[in-house]
């Protein structure tokens, strides 16, 4: 090799060495994420993996289990001291597109983290600036694809509180976003429409508000779950929804009509617009074109018009809920063609006409609710074909006839309600074959049968609710009646014609599960059971024996019923004092919380009992729960012959709301500390022999008050709640020594002796007007009516029977 050649080779090697050195220096000094991009971040210690708690709503997507995808790296060579070539650099540092994407997504995730105001469980403690290079691997709920793009954020049920940042739209590769069961508020960011790969979005059970953005324009969207939020405004037109499979927007505030363009969602399987309370207009006929539809929930809205017969074309339909709307017209028989239906809930509308015979073709049916409509006609015998039926609600209609014997084929029935119809006939014997029966409600019909027929129901070992009130049942309950119903909770035979005594089994074998017992408005005789071990009745809250012919004293065991909140023994023939054991009525001592309100999930089904229906699980096994209203604590002992003084024990029941002791023979004074009854709203002590003065203070909650027909004296208190009592009849008649401006009786002119004035009992001016009016009526009749005039003025010997006038012929003897 020549000198020039060697020189050239060395120069080339030297240039190569400088180039490699320069390249290495540039690469190693590449810019990193600057802290100023992530100001206001939270620096919390890393948290360990947490076990997921049970959820009320099924998650839109499965948990990734914390799996992460790491970026692959490549090895490059450089010169070391041994003459070898070795260089190691991350591919993300030399791929500019990946670097920019990583920075954008990192910014978006940190912005999401900063928009959360509280994180009580510390779920996002590892979302820190220091961990940005590892967000795909260690950040809670974040999953990436093999190229390092964020495709999934899964953060349900973590009690997160805050808003959803608009920068969420920078995650352009996002496929699934689940933030359900948290406390997010504010609007749903419209920037989500830039996430064109979004397939599943679950924001349900938060407090999000505002109108719905154009999410239906996302071409790959399959699952959209926004239930239990405050989203308002109308539903948009469904122009691009070919991929949509499930839409859950129940319990929101959306309004307006259901767009007929839903027909474009040909792959829609689950449609839930239940309980928005604002949807109006008619049900689109075009829903009949959604042949993949399995669940259709439109209940609890303000929908009007008829039920489209085209819904009968939905062969895959399993669940149809149109209840609690304003739908009218007849039920389309074509629904009977939907042989896959397991639940049909049409109750709470204005539907009329008959129950279609075709319903007997829905042999997969488990629940049928047609209650609270205006249906007439008879119960179709074809319903007996529904061998899987567990829930049959026909209450509050105008159904007539008897219960068809064919219904004996519904051997799976658990809930059977026929209340408030015009049904007649006897209690069918086939009811005894319903071994799974839990609730039987036949209230307010015209069923006529002997009380012995009720015993057939003893073959239903699971029976909890037996409501037979307001019928025409007669005869006596068998002595061992209560031994036959070991699971009984709610029992009522009120407003019938039952006679005889209270069954003797009440004293020893009454079911401990009892909550309500109602024997009122019958003809029961004898006394109340004397010896009852009240410890076996820990749950009894309602005990009613009113309007019978019961005699004797009030047994002391009633005072040991710890849960009792309503006691009605009125209009009987009971004597003796109120037992001192009434001081132990703990249920009357619970003062109501002003912040408490009735549970909105409970629906009234009668005077005392309530029902909710829960259809859950893939097999749609029916479960339901009978609850009770928060009892308005009531004690009514009126219209008996009870004696003695007003026991102090009653004044100690500080939670009592309604107290009626009227029309008895109570003596003595009214409790001086009656103002301690803070919950009291109604107090009736009228028609007794009470004396002394009216206590000067009373609870401000009292709005009905009556002490008339007693022997009270002294001035009527004024001020406070007494100034709201302006009706004189709550003090008079009676109480001759009572005085005060309200009764126009000055206290300085009250007589010392008990002298009664006619003005205490009648109105003198009114009596005079009545006498004068009556005299004038008789006089005019004599003058203008010939038969009357002849009768009065013709001599007695010449009187004869007058001719007949109109439909009546008068005879005088």
From TrEMBL:
InterPro entries: Leu-rich_rpt, Leu-rich_rpt_typical-subtyp, LRR_dom_sf, LRR_N_plant-typ, LRR_R13L4/SHOC2-like. This is Leucine-rich repeat-containing N-terminal plant-type domain-containing protein. The chain crosses the membrane at residues 767-792. Residues 103-145 form the Leucine-rich repeat-containing N-terminal plant-type domain. GO terms for biological process: anatomical structure morphogenesis; plant organ development. PANTHER family: LEUCINE-RICH REPEAT-CONTAINING N-TERMINAL PLANT-TYPE DOMAIN-CONTAINING PROTEIN, OS10G0469600 PROTEIN. One of its GO terms (cellular component) is membrane. Its main location: membrane. Residues 235-508 form the Disease resistance R13L4/SHOC-2-like LRR domain. Keywords: Leucine-rich repeat, Membrane, Repeat, Signal, Transmembrane, Transmembrane helix. It is a single-pass membrane protein. It comes from the Eukaryota. Pfam families: LRR_1, LRR_14, LRRNT_2. Residues 1-29 form the signal peptide. It is found in: Membrane. SUPFAM superfamilies: L domain-like (SSF52058), RNI-like (SSF52047).
């Amino acid at each position: 090799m020549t000198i020039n050649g060697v020189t050239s080779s060395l120069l080339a090697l030297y240039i190569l060495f400088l180039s490699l050195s320069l390249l290495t220096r540039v690469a190693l000094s590449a810019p990193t994420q600057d802290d100023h991009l992530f100001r206001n971040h939270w620096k919390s210690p890393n948290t360990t993996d947490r076990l997921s708690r049970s959820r009320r709503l099924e998650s839109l997507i499965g948990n990734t289990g914390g799996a992460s995808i790491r970026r692959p790296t490549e090895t490059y060579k450089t010169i070391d001291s041994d003459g070898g070539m070795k260089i190691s650099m991350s591919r993300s540092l030399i791929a500019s597109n990946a670097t920019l994407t990583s920075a954008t997504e990192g910014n978006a995730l940190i912005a999401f983290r900063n928009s959360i105001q509280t994180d009580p469980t510390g779920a996002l403690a590892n979302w820190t600036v220091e961990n940005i290079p590892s967000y795909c691997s260690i950040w809670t709920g974040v999953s990436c694809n093999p190229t390092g793009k964020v495709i999934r954020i899964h953060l349900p049920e973590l009690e997160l509180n805050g808003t959803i940042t608009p920068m969420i739209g920078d995650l352009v590769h996002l496929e699934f976003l689940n933030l359900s069961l948290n406390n997010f508020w504010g609007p749903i960011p419209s920037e989500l429409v830039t996430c064109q790969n979004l397939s599943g979005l679950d924001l349900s059970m938060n407090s999000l508000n505002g109108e719905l953005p154009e999410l239906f324009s996302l071409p790959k969207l399959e699952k959209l779950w926004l239930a239990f939020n405050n989203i308002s405004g109308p539903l948009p037109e469904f122009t691009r929804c070919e991929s949509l499979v499930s839409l859950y927007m129940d319990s929101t505030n959306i309004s307006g009509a259901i767009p007929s363009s839903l027909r474009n969602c040909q792959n829609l399987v689950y449609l839930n617009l239940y309980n928005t309370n604002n949807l109006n207009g008619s049900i689109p006929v075009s829903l009949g074109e959604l042949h993949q539809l399995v669940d259709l929930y439109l209940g609890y809205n303000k929908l009007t018009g008829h039920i489209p017969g085209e819904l009968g074309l939905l062969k895959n339909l399993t669940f149809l809920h149109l209840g609690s709307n304003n739908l009218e017209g007849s039920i389309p028989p074509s629904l009977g063609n939907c042989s896959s239906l397991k639940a049909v809930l049409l109750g709470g509308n204005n539907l009329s006409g008959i129950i279609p015979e075709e319903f007997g073709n829905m042999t997969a049916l488990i629940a049928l609710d047609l209650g609270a409509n205006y249906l007439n006609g008879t119960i179709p015998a074809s319903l007996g074909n529904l061998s899987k039926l567990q829930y049959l609600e026909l209450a509050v209609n105008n159904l007539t006839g008897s219960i068809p014997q064919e219904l004996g084929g519904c051997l799976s029935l658990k809930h059977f309600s026929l209340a408030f119809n015009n049904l007649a006939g006897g209690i069918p014997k086939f009811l005894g074959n319903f071994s799974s029966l839990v609730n039987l409600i036949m209230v307010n019909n015209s069923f006529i049968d002997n009380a012995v027929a009720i015993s057939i129901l003893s073959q239903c070992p699971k029976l909890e609710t037996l409501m037979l009130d307001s019928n025409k049942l007669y005869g006596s309950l068998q002595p061992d009646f209560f031994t036959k119903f070991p699971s009984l909770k709610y029992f009522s035979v009120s407003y019938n014609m039952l006679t005889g005594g209270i069954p003797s089994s009440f004293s020893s074998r009454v079911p401990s599960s009892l909550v309500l017992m109602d024997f009122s408005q019958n003809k029961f005789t004898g006394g109340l059971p004397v010896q009852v071990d009240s410890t076996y009745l820990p749950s009894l809250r309602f005990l009613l024996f009113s309007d019978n012919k019961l005699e004797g004293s009030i047994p002391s065991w009633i005072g040991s019923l710890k849960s009792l909140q309503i006691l009605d023994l009125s209009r009987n023939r009971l004597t003796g004092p109120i037992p001192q054991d009434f001081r132990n009525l703990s249920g009357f001592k619970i003062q109501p919380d002003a912040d408490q309100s009735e549970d909105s999930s409970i629906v009234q089904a009668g005077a005392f009992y309530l029902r909710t229906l829960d259809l859950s699980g893939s097999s749609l096994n029916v479960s339901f729960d009978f609850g009770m209203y928060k009892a308005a604590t009531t004690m009514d002992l009126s219209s008996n012959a009870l004696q003695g003084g007003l026991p102090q024990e009653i004044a100690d029941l500080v939670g009592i709301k309604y107290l009626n002791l009227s029309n008895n023979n109570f003596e003595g004074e009214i409790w001086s500390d009656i103002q301690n009854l803070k919950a009291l709203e109604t107090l009736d002590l009228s028609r007794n022999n009470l004396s002394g003065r009216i206590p000067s203070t009373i609870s401000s909650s009292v709005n009905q008050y009556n002490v008339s027909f007693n022997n009270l004296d002294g001035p009527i208190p004024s001020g406070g709640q007494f100034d709201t009592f302006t009706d004189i009849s709550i003090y008079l008649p009676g109480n001759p020594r009572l005085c005060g401006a309200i009764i126009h009786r000055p206290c300085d002119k009250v007589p010392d002796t008990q002298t009664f004035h006619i003005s205490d009992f009648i109105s003198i001016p009114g009596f005079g007007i009545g006498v004068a009016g009556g005299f004038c009526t008789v006089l005019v009749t004599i003058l203008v009516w010939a038969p009357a005039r002849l009768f009065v003025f013709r001599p007695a010997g010449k009187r004869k029977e007058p001719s007949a006038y109109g439909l009546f012929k008068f005879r005088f003897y």
